[in-house]
Design a protein that fits this description.
Two copies of one chain form a homodimer.
Chain A lengths: L4 E6 L3 E6 L2 E7 L4 E7 L3 E6 L2 E5 L3 H13 L7 E6 L4 H6 L7 E6 L2 H10 L12 E5 L2 H7 L5 E7 L13 H10 E10 L7 H15 L2 E7 L7 E7 L10 H7 L8 H7 L4 H8 L1
Helix pairs in contact in A: 5-6
Chain lengths: 280, 280
Amino acid sequence: MSDDWFYETHEGALRFGLKIDEMLLDEQSDFQRVQVFETPLFGRVLALDGLLMTSERDEYNYHEMLVHPALCTAPSIERVLVIGGGDGGTVRELMRYPEVKQVVMVEIDGLVVEASKKYLPSIGSAWDDPRLELIIGDGIEYVREAPAASFDVVLLDGSDPVGPAEGLFDRSFYEGCARVLRPQGVFAQQSESPELFRAVFADVVRTARDVFGQAHPYFGPVPLYISGYWSFTFASRSVDPLALIDARAERVEQHTRRWDRALHRAMFVVPKDVRSALAD
Amino acid sequence: MSDDWFYETHEGALRFGLKIDEMLLDEQSDFQRVQVFETPLFGRVLALDGLLMTSERDEYNYHEMLVHPALCTAPSIERVLVIGGGDGGTVRELMRYPEVKQVVMVEIDGLVVEASKKYLPSIGSAWDDPRLELIIGDGIEYVREAPAASFDVVLLDGSDPVGPAEGLFDRSFYEGCARVLRPQGVFAQQSESPELFRAVFADVVRTARDVFGQAHPYFGPVPLYISGYWSFTFASRSVDPLALIDARAERVEQHTRRWDRALHRAMFVVPKDVRSALAD
């Protein structure tokens, strides 16, 4: 046991710290600092540029919340695009659906995928699925060049709006996602803490609303993330997030650890104070 | 600006830190260390024995969640007992109801009340309400000696199960609360993090269920609390937590910042993984 701690600090005023039992990887890629370490409470943890990304203990909270709302409401889910998602958890959840014929995942940083394969095999347990096309490259560029109306679902599984993920929070990127989606397609993304980073969160929802015509935030705990409570945003030109496809949802509920249809409906209830922030 | 930080540490493995702009009070009472300090992100913060209790910024999350589920479902709410609650936020929310004729609040530590009156006036804004009977004393003893069936609502607004609040987590205390409640009465309390402290949380729910016959956890974010996502437990011999008294709830919704009837129903949805923990 070492006496080292990992600290994530925000605005020089708030810190979340995890004791490190053992540093397994600490390397600078072409894009960011990639760290994997063992902790007493969260198991193995992945951090990028000093920000906590995922852990063995709580990764299912995040991945189930990102994937199942979109996948259980989009009429067709044959072709899915994932931007980011280097730990592999999103792909694992997607592969639970036999209706999914192809997942294109575009992750900018090959080291994140390598590190996750080596150190976090329980998170990325579907790397060998033949339906996966893994592209190590720039997701923004990919979306710019992909044919229009070529995906049923687009999931933005990126990190925070600093460093290599910064452009993923630009309006032009949302316009690209809307373009590559089929008319009845669904887009979903993590959209930061609705409590601590309410301004960034509200920007995401408003931009997605402008671009897609409708966007709906939803909420749930991710204990690893600073402040512990996180938001996601569901956007679509035509799909109602509460109109679940019951047979499909019932099937996937056999495999989820947390998400089910009752929780789905509860997650989309927007508290009064958050509603006010979105109306400003 | 000082360079001081306040750290709350759990199991020697997890830390939540706030930068301190100014320490306003740091005193040992007969029961615990009482600190009030100014922070950049949470405004003024109250800590007891090194544990963060409440802040100007996010106190409404906690106080609205503790008070309104019980107060909007109990058929009668004339007499309310609060155990703890030294910052005054719970009393403030209770006094929004004209049906409340008397609130007895039993706080063990007079210094917490004094400090809150002096430094946190926006939280405890109802100290002068003539319906309040404030007793500085031991809540466990008070409950042991109070007449049976003498309260409509009992709210346990205590700190964590260490230090002076430890006995509040004992079965005999729950039995006392059940005894002083009228048959159609409602009991509610904070019940720790359902994610990080799942064992303590599950113990509370199970004990309350044993003693009252039914107990229902509910959930929501409290950004100041370590891991950020918190649980409360609603217990009653006969009252259904989802059977809201609409007229009363509609009235109080004019004053709440976060709680409303839609959020109420969403808060009581228990995620699959939490359900499993409660069934063990």
